[in-house]
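Quick one:
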Amino acid sequence: MNNAALRRKKRRRAHKLFSVALLILIPIICFAVGKAGTGGQRGGASANPRQPSAPPANGPDAASPGSFADDRGPFVNGGPEDWMVFLVNAENPLPDGYRPVLKSLPNGLQFDGRAIGPLNEMLSEMRGQGLSPIVCSAYRTIGYQSALFHAKASSLEASGLSSREADREARKTVAYPGTSEHNLGLAADIVSSGYQTLDEKQADTREGRWLREHCAEYGFILRYPKEKEDITGVQYEPWHFRYVGAEAARDITGLGLCLEEYLKMQ
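Output:
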């Protein structure tokens, strides 16, 4: 084996080890978020150290709610009154400079300050009915989303795919930075304390069933429903809930739509 081939082999091995380490650590951290807070409150969790804090909502660096850091206006796909149904997906990435003003959940994760009240009310009602929901992911910085995406892409590349193929495959399960609703600040991954794996079995938990039946009452929708993958571009995620406001949530849920279909009707 010549020197160039040896170096390529070493680089592939290093990429693989790095990717495997990240993929092991990420679910462990998410699991730890749920476990750490169970002693403090029902279904609670401690802050996720992997997600850096955003500028304080009332500090000198804070932007107005859901604003850009420059003067291009409030939104590119609607006016300021449309913040609740702001569309973020692979075709509609967040513009550079978007800075949500966030507030902290009891477990330390952050959510858009205008929608955190309904989220807390929904979680409180669930706990009052004997359920144990855990928010294991909420707002994510672009940097954190980038780490998730590149860990997945690096793992795929180490398995033998070209960099272009790995990038394409990674986008099927991990949103590219800036195209995730978690970067918007209006999405929360909610799981059962008794089953914290992010897979389709989450839909069969008591918490998952309750959320599908009642989330619209609090302005939330199941963002990536089954059999809508061709429209949303995202696989079925029974744990991913998005705040859209009570009126839109009622219409979307009642008509069996996804957000993309609803917006086309407006």
